[in-house]
Amino acid sequence: MNLREKILDLKQKKNAIILAHYYQTADIQDIADFLGDSLQLAQVAENVDADIIVFAGVHFMAETAKLLNPHKKVLIPDLDAGCSLSDSCPPDLFKQFTESLPDHKVISYINCSAEIKALSDVICTSSNAMSIVNSFPEDQPLIFAPDRNLGAYINKQTGRNMVLWNGACMVHEIFSIEKLLNLKVEFPEAKIIAHPECEAELLEYADFIGSTTQLLKYTQQDSAEKFIVVTETGILHQMMLASPHKIFIPAPPNNSCACNDCPHMKKNTLEKIYQALLLESPELILSVDILTKAIVPIKKMLDISRANAFV
Ligand code: 13P
Ligand code: SF4
């Protein structure tokens, strides 16, 4: 049996399920039971009936799956698959920050640790951030953490003045505006589509801004034939599968690389997924205290999303 067949065989024998984010490599996307953006994966994780969940994504995503399935085994192929955005928000400093603004409610982007989630009133993703923010009365002071770029984008869209934690994603912040504009000169008919984790200065040039799933849907529904894609390159696999006749050009970062991969997401491999299934390790473990506290704002997000029919 090849590696792919061995994974599928083990998965069946152990009643396991593989959830994968769009930023995984194409071979992992192709064997996943469910593939999606952060919101979709949380929604799927809420209703899993397998005994084992293998989460092909990064640490905070596997934590979310564990919070939603405290009695199931959640495996992460590489325990070191972290996230620069999550790391930019240490829980002790964040606790002091929220305590200094006691009249503020706390909205945290799902790209944060379970400890930060436990300090939050509600979680959001890039798909539902607007409706989560709008679920609070206009005069309610808000903290938004940890992504200053997504927070600034939502402030601009909603006219709010949320206090922003000063965190950022290393992948979405290093796109080169100069190289992006050069690409636009080369392909003037191409539409620029960008993820809201990018800086405001870059978003000014985007024809469309949205979460990973919203970007994918846009490329399917819009009449343009060419797109310059300003987000992690993993999503191009699904864009090309969904619209094989269209051209997708990854936007380059401000270094010598031609495209922009998340080094954390790309730590996962088929071999590591196989080993994780075989050994049932590394397993994601959370304390009872964190399991009890951090699930509350996640459930709140899922309830609000259900009410707004986010799928
Ligand atoms: P979404 O999945 O919400 O588009 O977020 C992208 C991301 O950076 C995941 O780490
Ligand atoms: Fe974190 Fe950015 Fe990688 Fe997403 S793309 S996992 S936000 S570092």
Layout of strands and helices, then pairs:
Layout: H1 3-13, E1 16-21, H2 26-31, E2 34-36, H3 38-45, E3 52-56, H4 59-68, E4 73-75, H5 84-87, H6 91-99, E5 105-109, H7 114-118, E6 122-124, H8 129-134, E7 142-145, H9 148-158, E8 163-164, H10 170-173, H11 177-186, E9 191-194, H12 200-203, E10 208-209, H13 212-221, E11 226-230, H14 236-242, E12 247-250, H15 270-279, H16 288-307
The chain binds 1,3-dihydroxyacetonephosphate and iron/sulfur cluster.
Shape: globular
Superfamily at the CATH H level of the largest domain?
Answer: NadA-like
* Structure summary, number of beta strands: 12
Query: Helix/strand-derived class?
Result: alpha/beta
Q: What is the CATH-assigned architecture of the largest domain?
A: 3-Layer(aba) Sandwich
Q: Spell the H/E element sequence.
A: HEHEHEHEHHEHEHEHEHHEHEHEHEHH
Look at the structure and give the CATH class of the largest domain.
Answer: Alpha Beta
Overall mean pLDDT: 97
Strand content: 5-15%
Task: State the separation between the terminal residues, measured CA to CA.
Answer: 36 Å
Q: What does the radius of gyration come to?
A: 19 Å
